[in-house]
Amino acid sequence: MSAKRSLGIIVGSLRGESFTRKIARSLAEAAPPGLSPSFVEIGDLPLYNQDLEGESAPKSWTEFRRRIRALDALLFATPEYNRGLPAALKNAIDVGSRPSEHNVWSGKPAGVVSVTPGALGAMAAHHQLRQVLFVVGVAVLPKPDIYIANVAALLGADGAVANEKTRELLTNYMRLLAAWIERMLADLPAS
């Protein structure tokens, strides 16, 4: 890697101590030296309403869009609610993609990780998120898919990943994501 790349981590769960946020913290800690991870919070974004665009756009929308625009890449960590992605996460994507001529997501390389205390690894939310990201122009790492199932059994009392195989999986994923980011950014035309 030639330069340290800024990686925005967006967590679909708003709960401060959610399983998804704990896995996202572990992913940030596993980032290779070429990535500079930081969390982008989505909980204060009002629901997207086109009537609020322009001069009266909420300040949180403007700041969120500015922040996403400035990032080199993204990592989405999502739980699954009712076989789909959380409303707050979909809203954040909508806020960043509107108006369409100012879509802040377009061309950003990204990764997607889904997390659940259940057995299916939040697979439905994972694939729904990939589909939405494709539509707004995000280049999601195609493989490997990371579905973290039975997450409670993988975490220690301090909330960190205690399972060695899971730590290895997350570290390997972050290494592959870093390579994907470099590949995608190298393919972008010079501005």
Summary tags:
single chain, 191 residues, alpha/beta, Rossmann fold, six-stranded parallel β-sheet, 6 strands, 37% helix
Give the second-level CATH assignment, the architecture.
3-Layer(aba) Sandwich
CA-atom Rg in angstroms: 16 Å
Largest sheet: 6 strands, parallel
Work out the strand percent.
Answer: 15-25%
Helices and strands: which structural class? alpha/beta
Quick structural gist:
With 191 residues, this protein is of the alpha/beta class.
Explain this structure.
The protein has 191 residues and is of the alpha/beta class. It has a single domain (5-186), classed as Rossmann fold. The protein is 37% helix and 16% strand. It has five helices and six strands. Strands 1, 2, 3, 4, 5 and 6 form a six-stranded parallel β-sheet that branches. Strand 3 (73-78), helix 3 (87-97) and strand 4 (109-115) form a beta-alpha-beta unit. The relative contact order is 0.19. The mean pLDDT is 93.
